[in-house]
Amino acid sequence: MMNDVTGSANPASGAPRRDAPGVIVFPPALYLATLLSGILLSYFWRWPLLPGSVSNSWFRIAGGVMIVPGLSLVIWGRARMMSAGTNVIPTRPALVIVTDGPFRFTRNPLYLGNLIVYAGLILVFNSAWLAILLIPMLLLLNYGIVQREERYLEAKFGNDYRAYKARVRRWL
């Protein structure tokens, strides 16, 4: 069931409401900007997360291993959204609620996959800067993207989305 919010009036202003969640930043740009900022900080002020060459090697291996399932989750989630016929880009309207594939386990498989990749990169680069920058990134992701998307989907799909929320966790 799809409810279209395009053209419906915004009760506060009487203006038409745009059919999009109104995220404050494009999610891949948030991840990339955070990663690049951490790498840049690490270049000028090296601050290893864990000092030591032996543990550093294991950190890099563990980080590399984490990247594979993270990317797989992103690719799987994106493929399910595309095959369901909905927009992947959050500035465009959601056309359906995708509830199969990785969406059976998490409401945000693309964001979760990207977080797993980012965590793997923290280990690969052995960077305390990347770990510290994860905190503001998570705050922006939660308040500026995820919660806005969830309000939008609830307004657009109503009880169908509320039922989905009740059975599937936001992250895991």
Concise overview:
The chain has 172 residues and is an all-alpha fold. The chain has helices spanning 27-44, 53-84, 109-125, 128-157, 159-167. The two termini are 25 Å apart.
How would you sum up this structure, described in words?
This protein is mostly helical. The chain has a domain at 53-167. It has helices spanning 27-44, 53-84, 109-125, 128-157, 159-167. Helix 1 (27-44) packs parallel to helix 3 and helix 2 (53-84) packs antiparallel against helix 3 (109-125). It is elongated and about 55 Å long. The two termini are 25 Å apart. The model is unreliable at 1-11 (pLDDT under 50).
Q: Which features characterize this protein?
A:
single chain, 172 residues, mainly alpha, 5 helices, 62% helix, elongated
Give the SSE map.
Blueprint: H1 27-44, H2 53-84, H3 109-125, H4 128-157, H5 159-167
End-to-end C-alpha gap: 25 Å
Mean pLDDT over all positions: 90
**Main beta sheet, described?**
none
Helix content: 55-70%
